[in-house]
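Section handout, structural biology tutorial.
Before the tutorial, make sure you can parse a SMILES string by hand: atoms, branches in parentheses, ring closures as digits. In the record below the ligand is S-adenosylmethionine, and the chain has 252 residues. In the tutorial you will relate the predicted structure tokens back to the input. Do not try to memorize them.
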Amino acid sequence: MSHEYPINFARFYDTMYHQLRDGVDNNFHLNEIKQTKGKVLEIGVGTGRFFTDALNTGADIYGIDISETMVGVLLGKLDEKEHRRISVQSITDFNFDFQFDLIIAPFRVMMHVLEKSEQLEALNNVYKHLAPGGRFIFDTFIPDLKQLLTGLHNHTDFDGEYEPGKKLKRIVSTRPDLINQLINIHFRLEWDENNRVMHEDWKFPLRFFFRYELEHLIERSRFKHYKILGDYRGNELNEKSKEFIVIGIKQE
Ligand SMILES: C[S@@+](CC[C@H](N)C(=O)[O-])C[C@H]1O[C@@H](n2cnc3c(N)ncnc32)[C@H](O)[C@@H]1O
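Predicted structure of the complex:
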């Protein structure tokens, strides 16, 4: 299964992903949430990169995540009366005594679920928690074969500031494990604090998927109706697609 986000990765998550990710997917998810009349669940809610926006626009949204450090950052942003909406639970065995009209697991959450049995448990547990007609949306990236083979070597993917005058940098290296369909990621954070350059390292695996494996997986689950989009503008899969965005539907 996955790993706890180290404390400084949770601390700097919003600073980095505001730049690296917000422009890509948050409008898509916020739009899906806006179109939903009933309850919404975000699985792998993390620091609530767009959870707070959804809540502020009136969504009846809940969030779960397995990482206490990430959830800790999110709780710090919410009024105490909204804390009931957040809990530490895993996609494979979370439990609510009500159902949702929309469940989303944005930004690679399913790629943290490594084993086939856990992936099926996750899909079926989500299905169980959907109201009739409800939808489940999750994404995985389409493996870039060239990058998969060569990996990344000390590639700086964020170089900015977390506060005025205080530098923050993230360096990433990756190593493929083809037989287990894993990308082993090594992140290093470096930041200015107390007149020193601090650092923290984090290594974890991500499971990558190809199209027909994803289709077979979904078809083995209780989801019988689904589609896969190729980007956050709603386009079908094509040779330029970089994302698999799965939308599973629980039939009425
Ligand atoms: C890349 S972050 C995405 C966070 C947020 N959804 C966003 O879009 O910014 C992936 C999140 O999935 C969480 N996660 C990983 N495995 C999980 C699991 N089995 N159940 C629930 N959350 C999980 C991680 O702790 C992390 O917060």
